[in-house]
Amino acid sequence: MPINSTDDRKSDGHDDGGPLQHLPRELVAGAIVTARGARCRLDATIAHGNCCELHLSRSTDGGRRVLLWPFDRPIANKRLRRPVVVPLRRWIRVIGRAAGQTIDPATPRTRMTAAEILPYQLAPAIEMAAGASRMLLADEVGLGKTVQAGWIISDLVEREPGARVLIAVPAGLRRQWSAELSRFFAISTIGVDARWLRDTVAEVPAEVSPWSAPGVYVGSIDFLKRADVASALQALIWDLVVIDEAHAATAPTERHAALSGIARRARRVVSISATPYSGNPAGFASLAALGGASGETPPLMFRRAREHAGDARARRHHFATVRISAAEIRLQRLLERYSRDVWREAPGDADAARLAVTILRKRALSSPASAARSLTRRLELLRGSTAAPRQLSLFDEEDALDDDLPHAALAAPGLADTAREQRWLTVLIDAANHAVPHDSKERYVLRFLRRLGSEPVILFTEYRDTLLQLARALPPALHLHGGLTTAARAEVQRRFNADGGLLLATDAAAEGLNLQRRCRTVVNFELPWNPARLEQRIGRIDRIGQRRTVHAVTLVARDTAEDLVIANLAKRLARVAATLGDRDRLAAFLTDTRTARIVIGGAPDVPEPEPFEPVVVPVAPPTDVRTLRAAEQVRWRRCGPPDDSLFIASVRASPALPGGFVFAVRCAAQTCEGRLVAARLVIVHAIGDVSRPAKAAAARRAAELAIERLLPRAIHAVRDADSWFADVAREHDDALQRQSLREAALTARGAAGGELQPGLFDRRALLQAERESAVEERLRAEHRERLASLQRERALNRTIAVAGVLVVWR
Fold first, then answer.
1. Same domain membership, residue 339 and residue 295
2. C-alpha span between 454 and 502 (Å, rounded)
């Protein structure tokens, strides 16, 4: 039975002036009680002025519940541990299972999970439990970063049941995140969108924020960046903010501004991106700065390759050069002349005009059909014969995915002489329409598909109109683009994984999809200008579960501007190699691009990039012994909680096992509020002369007497018991210190304020300032309470409970 446990009649240090509800002495952390007809363990007690929280876990399945004393009155079992005499074989099995359920301070506390436990995926959760406040999950595509974030979320929810977690994801991944957290970790999420916000605001009082309740919220990045939503989120303190596909929210964008403001209110921030650095130092710096406070260290980055997951498969990537037809060459040359004229003569906003012709050039490199549609739309906009681009409504139910024609960007005039520009566009449209039947890349793909036969293939293109043109020319295929709803995209993914075939997809609709079940071949119809897109596309099939060599083919048109695109890619990839190392998966494309540059453009090797200031981010080490041990502990915990009975067995002494008593003792370290920090099983052998027990009752009496007389001296003789507790206390204190530093940084950030100049006859600005001041004061009070709670948790109590006794008789 416990020798040193805590009485938590008043553990939170807060007194609201009401009568204190004292608990019976037998209701202490670790006690076995009967509550509402179920046998439970009392994990912790938190006293308030007029009631007391009792945190219980059921002995049968480990399920959690919280009851309030005195409204519920659990009954403590008279004997905290029921002595059971069992055969020796069962005793060894039960004690061996208890020995496997060791708990370290940073071991993930997750109990219910259907996920396969891969040690490298636990490392981020271990670092977060050890006190890390900001983290960048940047493993290669397909290594299960969603599951790694799930370990972090489930561990936090297990340690802090009242935690608020916000997950910001691309619109198409909301259902996937909710499904995986539910399937693997039994976490129920709250899907947030405009409809949820309207319904919740209508139900809660006006002074209550709809985001204030504890829970795990999942919303799209573009919904959360709305001004009204972002301001409400920034008025709260979040225990954890997770940003998926964070490379799409780098500065300077509205997404980055909104997420940065929310992350500055978060105790922990996890950014997820398989391609965090694509050669743009400023973008990478803004990603590393998400949630950072002045003086804080950069986030810890996890950048692991497939080798860390035990996957040694090769990947083959090939740049295929395509000779374009005479009609396509004419279109490209005319576009080059037109874009040069616009670059020199653009009236008014030159940047807007140059952006328009850049879009035309990019879409012409994709396909003549895409060029024809873009040019036609631009001519209609300049003539004023079509309506202006639609203004999105305030409550769009689903975020638009950007693979359609950018109407607003194409409306900017390019030449001062409007009539001359319209004549230019008329000529270009005629050239594009003439080139559509002679699309060289389209013919190349047809030949390629015939050679592959029935092999499943994914064909990526950047633009939806190119996809629709290919759908008319190629064999029957599934379509995956931004015009589909989330449910339709999920159905396409299901059908392709089940039946294979040909899948035509755009980047906007394919983020985060798992398509590796049947497919191993990816074709890039045009060369992306951002190297990260190559990795994202190939990563749809090069993932955990893929058992074959992955093949990727990228089509590059000869005698076009794509040789300049390759040169730009090579420069950006050289920066990636300089920052993340030559062995990085994205940097591995550098060799391919250099070769393609020589073959296509006939140019010498790409020169080194211009000097730049690299962003230094610490990289976590590979899987270590601590991670492997934590994985083993989590596997053991799947077997369920340890049995609370006191198991007794007997065996005859031998030269290897002298007579006496063998105690299996569970040592634990708990906070003053009863939260378990660490636990281990210690085997103690007290040598002595013991007679053979005649019956089970005699063995039970002998074990109970030995516990009372011999156990304290035997525990004292264990050499490493004190050192183990000291190590646990030090690791626990280090984690709390790191959390306290983050909390103090958040408190200091919210304390700044400026002077207000009130209006002479208008008090609106003054009232708004008062409301903001009240919010800041509330947040500062919450920070102070958190700091006080962390300080209280520093003191640890050591508890000892006997799990089994082996009577060794002579």
1. no
2. 9
**Between 590 and 168, residue with greater pLDDT:** 168
First-to-last C-alpha distance (Å) of the chain: 27
Average pLDDT over all residues of the chain: 81
Q: Which residues form the domain of 7?
A: 1-80
**Nearest CA to 200 among 219, 187, 188, 213?**
213
Q: Are residues 298 and 321 in the same domain?
A: no
Instruction: State pTM to two decimals.
Output: 0.79
In 355-466, at which residue ranges do the beta strands (DSSP E only) sit?
A: 457-461
Do 197 and 299 share a structural domain?
Answer: yes
Handedness of CA 372, 374, 375, 379 (dihedral sign): positive
Higher pLDDT, 182 or 28: 182
Per-residue model confidence as pLDDT tens digits over 528-555: 877 778 888 888 888 877 888 889 998 9
Rounded (10°) CA dihedral 369, 370, 375, 376: 60
My answer on whether omega of the bond before 70 falls inside 30° of 0, hence cis, is yes
The answer to whether the CB of 272 falls within 8 A of the CB of 301 is no
Residue 603: which of 612, 594, 616, 615 has the closest Cα? 594
Element (H, E) at 197: helix 194-203
Rg (CA), the chain: 32
Looking at residues 21-41, what average pLDDT do you find?
Answer: 75
Q: What's the CATH code of the domain at 350?
A: 3.40.50.300
Distance CA 371, CA 362 (A): 9
Give all strands of the β-sheet with 190-192 in edge-to-edge order.
190-192, 215-220, 164-169, 240-243, 269-272, 134-137, 300-302
Among 165, 158, 301, 188, which Cα is nearest to 242's?
Answer: 165
Estimate the share of the chain in helix, then strand, then coil, as percent rounded to the nearest 5.
45, 20, 40
- Residue 433's SS3 state is helix
Looking at residue 613, its pLDDT comes to: 57
Decide if pLDDT at 611 tops 90.
no
